[in-house]
Amino acid sequence: NGSQEHLLLEPEILHVFVPPFVSKSQPEGESLRSRGRRRRSFMRKKRQQPPSAAPIQGGLQVTNERKDEQFHFLVFTDVFGNKTYGVVMQRYCPLLDWTSFYKNGAGSSPCVKLFSACGFCVISKYPYFTALKDCLSCLLMQLKVCRLSDMEERVREFAAKLALVPVPPPGQLHLMFTLPPLSITLPCSEDKNHPTLDLDLHLPFICFRPQQLLQVLSCLLQEQRVVLFSADWSRLTLVAESLLAFLQPLSWQQPYVPVLARGMLDFLMAPTAFLMGCHVNHFADVAAETDDLILISIDNGSVSCSSSDNINLPDIPQAAADCFTQRCQSLQIHFDLNQCHKASCTDINEQRAQRRAWQQNLNYDIQTITLELIVNIFRDVGSHLNYEHRVFHSEEFLKTRDPSEQLFYKKVLDTHIFHSFLRDRLNKKMDSFARMELSTRSEMQKLVVSTASPDLWIEPVEVFKLPDFPTYLSFHSVQAYYSDLIQQLGKSIFSAQNESSALLARFYYMRGLINTLCSRRLDALSDFQNLNKTDTAIFPTNLVTWLVESLQQEERNLAQKRPELKRLIFRVSYNEKPPVEPDNSVKKFKLPLKHLYQDEFVRCIQECGIVKNVETIHRLFDALTDGQPRQVKPELFKDFYSFWKEMEAESHDADLPSEVVEHLDNSECVYKLSSCVKTSHGVGKIAMTQKRLFLLTEGRPDFLEITKFRDIQDVKIASAPFLLVRIPSLRIQTSSRSETFEANLKAETELWNIMVKEMWAGRRLADQHKDPQYLTQALTNVLLMDAVMGCLPAPRPITAASKLVHFDKLIHEVPMMVPEATSETLKHKINPSQDLPKPQTVHVLLYTPGSGSAASQCGMDMNPKLWVALSGGKVVVFDAASWSMLQDRIQVGESQVNCMMGLVQDHVWIGSQDSVIYIIDTHSMSCNKQLTEHRHEVTAVMMAYSCSSDGTVLQWDSSSLKVKRQYSVSCDRLSSIQIHSGTLWCCKCTLPPCICRFLPNNFLHFTDEIPSLYLSIYSPRVLCLLQRGQVWTGCSDSPELCLWWTNNSKQPFRRISLPSSAGVTCMIRVKDQIWVGCRGWSCVGGQCDGQQRSQVVVLDPESHSVDKELQAHSDCIQTLCSAEDRYVLSGSASRDGKIAIWKVE
Q1: Secondary structure of residue 648 in the 3-state scheme
Q2: Are 155 and 17 in contact (CB under 8 A)?
Q3: What is the mean pLDDT of the chain?
Q4: 80 and 123, same structural domain?
């Protein structure tokens, strides 16, 4: 009518194209190109939808001129938090031609210069923003040259081709396919817990300065009501997705609608936190109508608040913010600057490849910088977590923050986003945060801004090119396409066999997926079975379960003839335990409000992180309830907890003069400081560290050492004259000084007396047993005594505190003299259960040597490692150079570990009672590979061989992880295997026990019965050791070893008696010695006291005599291992639970 205003109409959804687009029942001659028919499965009209349902920017407008095409992006979130992503292309079509086509079918209408917007939206479960935009751009090229009557068919063909493209699994494999004229790449996600990243992360850095960007991230971390504004709809989603990516691994938990249509603006009235976006035209209305919104203008890079000119929110901590700002200055966010020195590209795909490579590197740099920001903000959270009880000590964490930062942390700690972060930390999730925090921990105990950004190791990525799409999309052409794809994947699998197991796993996954689409269920199961050997992290459990359940009887019969499938089907159908849901609870520590009985008291003490050892907590409970009912009042617990925390803070914040500090070791802290007293060395305060006592002199503070705990000879209470009375004093006799030190401690005398004696006893036991944990435990006992004295009213305290004396009583009640041979040979002791409430049995030990210089150049850990298998499938790892714990727990199933072996430098094989061999990557410390060919518990792994209790022996190809040969031994139980002189020896339990020899080259075997010593005894554990043509055997219930010769079966065997032994539990050869772990009973005065004891017996293989008897464990020795023939390590059962390190002469 000549009006300049645009006519707004109500849009409707014309078509919805969903797979499958072809079916087997489709006639051979009919393809997707058939015209003149409407398939009811492809068309659905939505006349009741509001305008906001259509992907049209600004509503459906009728204009008198054609506008340029536009793209924008959508994110849909359902009530369960699952996201779906949409990429929309909007183009303008002649209005009358468009309507005439749908009214009258094919044909043309009068040429009228009116145009209406038409939107094309591709919806995906994955955020492929860039890839789908490229796809729609290719569709646009076709639509520009086709008739309107052909447009529906073109769109249907486009949708059908996209449906043929699989999604790459998480890891190191991108997929590439061709839609003329472009080659399009689908990137993979980093892991299954992170979404795919297919956008330009530098866009926010173009829109905002670093200071504004920090302000935005601070608002998101504090879960504010945030609204993004822009005149360009496409920027809203891309910037919002980038901001959420910057928060990783923290995950936004609140409502998220990056694009709000005009009819949805009332969503901004929601009282909860949210992140939403809308057109800049609504900025003034939104700012005026709502309060306390954070308004972020993408177009001009401003951040404001709807209720005030300034944002009244605390900023990100200054040190972390400064580090982030400095890192941002090094970013090269302009592609053209990077290309100035390069020749111009004459091929569009080559230019796109260059741009994609540049963008990937830039995205990696940005992710590293933003991750470093998150790590710097939350680095110390892990120090205030109690993993066993899933408790976060928020109040203690806040006390460690700078006063200027506390308001920020108070707000963040109460958010849902931080709660999910805590849940992952308590689950010990090894994500990007954990890896960076661990890699920078030693260099940055405090945040220090350096010039170099920490680097994250990134694995190389492979790009796999999909076959070209078929010209005509019929059922048979699609099947042919899938066949070509399977053939290409087979070639890639063959070439990747000896290169990368991670890449090989992705190819197996892809081929299994395509075989599933082609209904080749057995082939698909075979591919997924191979994932156990390559990467179990991407194993599709639900899909495999569905495949097994859908097998026809004929397929099941065929599967029974394929051993690799038979095991998988059995495991899925009958033997597979339901997955254990992780405990996602997170508790903040709260003081008890009711009386505590002993069990509740133990839990509360462990939750608050004071003590983990249950026996120590029981002694503390006895001390606090001394002379009272057997329960602790909540008031008393609060007083004790407060006193303990005050002592803890004082020990860390002790303000000592520099003249004093220089006399102390770096690790020394002052844990107890007396009042100012008169001593034989002058007036001052007595200070106690974990190593010594010293006098902090009055007046000009100075350091005067009283004694080291190991130098004390005697401690006693005396009295010193003072005017007409005598006051209590403490006398300490030390070997370092001739004169006795005396201090008039008055009322503190009795407490200092029991504290010094306990530390002295702990030091003596630590030196005797080469076990520093004695001293650590003694210090804990002393601190508990001090806390009990501080919280109990007189006159109870000293009596109660005396109940916490442990080691001083121990050395007086039970003399713990260490034999000379043990003292000389024992180097050190370590406790793998130090972070657990109770000691656990050390079932298996494995020493792996350090890596070479090549690993060092790659930034990998060079030091040798000690692998320790505890109960319940737990494996802990120590640095064998410093004997410090590297990894507190790697979980390999739930069953007991029977054996471990370092087959190659990068992997450790672990055999379990659940019949699985788990393979641990020594770099990532993760277990993503499994060998499931055994049917019964795996009892031994040796070189490239493994055996199970049912007598099965498998020989493996260590590179492909396939079984090369299989042997079978007839026995009740196959206990161990060894390789000697090209022969595989198997020790089997039968009646009588015997040794089986395999000659692998000709499959012959010979059997030798173990001598008559064992004929009347059926032992569940028989051990054998081969040495210089000799076979050494022992049984767990026999106090003797048997020795016979392999090259002369007629030569009589020899018995070797083991003194003070009730049986043999383990045996190894080290240099020219035989080390034997024995079990027995402790005897006093010729009478057995019922306490288990154990010893290591060292034998000379030439003379067959006992060289040494070594005693260091209070429970049965379970395992022995050698560390490069320099040391022997022994691990014991749970009553002791420690590892002794012995020197080899």
Answers
A1: helix
A2: yes
A3: 83
A4: yes
Average pLDDT over residues 1027-1037: 78
The answer, yes or no, to whether residue 1084 has pLDDT greater than 50, is: no
User: pLDDT value at position 18?
Assistant: 85
Which residues, other chains included, contact 926 with Cβ-Cβ below 8 Å and sequence gap of 6+? 430, 537, 890, 920
Contact 1129/1143 with Cβ under 8 angstroms? no
Model confidence at 1082: pLDDT above 60: no
Whether 384 and 476 map to the same domain: the answer is no
- Pairing state between β 1040-1045 and 225-230: unpaired
3-class DSSP state for residue 1017? Answer: coil
What is the CATH classification number for the domain harbouring 220?
Answer: 3.40.50.11500
Q: How many CB atoms lie within 10 A of CB 583?
A: 10
Give the CATH number of the domain where residue 789 resides: 2.30.29.30
Q: Which of 155-169, 561-575, 666-680, 776-790 is the least confident region?
A: 561-575
Q: Is residue 1020 in a domain?
A: no
Residue 635 lies in a domain: no
Preceding amide of 795 cis, omega within 30: yes
The residue from 136, 161, 186 where one domain ends is: 186
Tokens of 1016: 């009347």
Domain boundary, last residue among 515, 545, 575: 575
Residue 739 and residue 699 in one domain? yes
User: How far are the Cα atoms of 80, 452, 832 from residue 256, in angstroms, in the given order?
Assistant: 12, 35, 45
- Name the pLDDT band for 581 (thresholds 50, 70, 90): low
Residue 901 has pLDDT above 50, yes or no: yes
Are 951 and 971 contacting, i.e. CB atoms less than 8 angstroms apart? yes
Neighbours of 995 (CB within 10 A): 21
Whether 134 and 221 share a structural domain: no
Q: Give the burial class of 644: count Cβ atoms within 10 A of its Cβ; 0-12 exposed, 13-18 middle, 19 or more buried.
A: buried
Q: Indicate whether 235 and 292 sit together in one domain.
A: yes
**Domain that residue 804 falls in:** 654-813
In contact, 1026 and 1000? CB cutoff 8 Å: no
User: Model-level pTM greater than 0.85?
Assistant: no
Same domain as 274, residue 174: no
Q: What is the pLDDT of residue 69?
A: 87
**pLDDT tens-digit map of 526-543:** 999 888 888 888 999 889
Could you report the per-residue pLDDT of 842-897, keeping only the tens digit for each?
999 999 988 654 444 444 557 889 999 999 999 999 988 888 888 677 889 889 99
**203: pLDDT strictly greater than 80:** yes
Which H or E run includes 603? helix 598-607
Give the residue, 520 or 97, on which the prediction is more confident. 520
| Torsion angles phi and psi, residue 569, rounded to 5 | -65, -40
Q: What is the pLDDT of residues 731-742, one digit of tens each?
A: 999 998 889 999
| Residues 753 and 793 placed together within one structural domain of the fold | yes
pLDDT of 854 reads 44
CA–CA dist 906, 904 (Å, integer): 6
In a domain, 788, yes or no: yes
Question: How many structural domains is the chain composed of?
Answer: 4
Query: What CA–CA distances, in Å, run from 570 to 153, 545, 563, 948?
Result: 47, 11, 11, 18
pLDDT number for residue 323: 94
Gyration radius of the chain over CA positions: 37
Residue 324 falls inside a structural domain: yes
Burial pattern 322-337, b for ≥16 Cβ within 10 A else e, equals ebbbebbeeeebeeee
Pairs from 963-966 (Cβ < 8 Å, separation ≥ 24):
963/933, 965/1000
DSSP 915-979: S-EEEEETTTTEEEEEE---SS-EEEEETTEEEETTSEEEEEETTTTEEEEEEE--SSEEEEEEE
Paired sense of beta strands 274-279 and 225-230, if any: parallel
Q: By CB neighbour count within 10 A (0-12 exposed, 13-18 middle, 19+ buried), where does 151 fall? A: middle
Residue at 488: amino acid letter: Q
Instruction: Give the tokens for residue 379.
Output: 């680095």
For residues 386 and 529, state if they share a domain.
no
